[in-house]
Amino acid sequence: MSNSKAELLRVQLRWMNECDLDRVYELEQEFSPKPWGPLEFAHMLMHSNCVGMVVEHDSQIIGYVIYEMLENSIKISNICVMPKFRRKGVGSQMIARIAFALPHSTRKEITLAVHESNLIAQLFFRSLGFKAVNICRAEDMKEDIYVMRYRHQPRILPTSLILN
Ligand SMILES: CC(C)(COP(=O)(O)OP(=O)(O)OC[C@H]1O[C@@H](n2cnc3c(N)ncnc32)[C@H](O)[C@@H]1OP(=O)(O)O)[C@@H](O)C(=O)NCCC(=O)NCCS
Fold first, then answer.
1. In the chain, where do the E strands start and end?
2. Where are the domains of the chain?
3. Reported pTM
4. 64 CB near ligand 1 (under 6 Å)
5. Which atom number of ligand 1 is nearest to the Cα of residue 125?
6. Residue that wins the pLDDT comparison between 122 and 138
7. CATH topology for 12-154?
8. Å from CA of 96 to ligand 1 middle
9. Can you tell me which atom of ligand 1 is nearest the CA of 78?
């Protein structure tokens, strides 16, 4: 996973805490194409395997990601960046932070579900090395959902490097 942008927006990433929830919820309502309602938010964040991270720029929250630590994988449940800070590598920095742990963890992949109409998100995840691996009917039958996956590939060293 890499982002070749010469200059990424300088941001701070930190864990989401309770004081951030109002602001995160506000951003979700304003800028997410399919915003979660308050119950979805509360339900998700109540789970002990659920992790939230926020991105700050000039001490303001400009984006967030929420993900679940499943038995063998990490599932991105929600990610959003304020429109005026998009295409500056902010989303990539959040995903890269999550992927950073994969080599040292038993969880070797990151998955997510994205609506077929959300082409920007598909392009975003594809640019980071995610591949579409499955397609599911949405519950409301209005549009399909693509399941995308990123797999950590351990580097295979050439056998000639093995010394007897
Ligand atoms: C998807 C999202 C999080 C991406 O965040 P971002 O900070 O803009 O992403 P980055 O700047 O790190 O983009 C990395 C790469 O993704 C691709 N990409 C991102 N936005 C794109 C767009 N609008 N059009 C085409 N490619 C795009 C590009 O390859 C980009 O690299 P480049 O700018 O050097 O060409 C952001 O667009 C967003 O918040 N969308 C609304 C919420 C949402 O749809 N969430 C996903 C739910 S599954």
1. 12-15, 50-57, 60-69, 73-81, 109-115, 131-137, 144-151
2. 12-154
3. 0.91
4. no
5. 16
6. 122
7. Aminopeptidase (3.40.630)
8. 13
9. 47
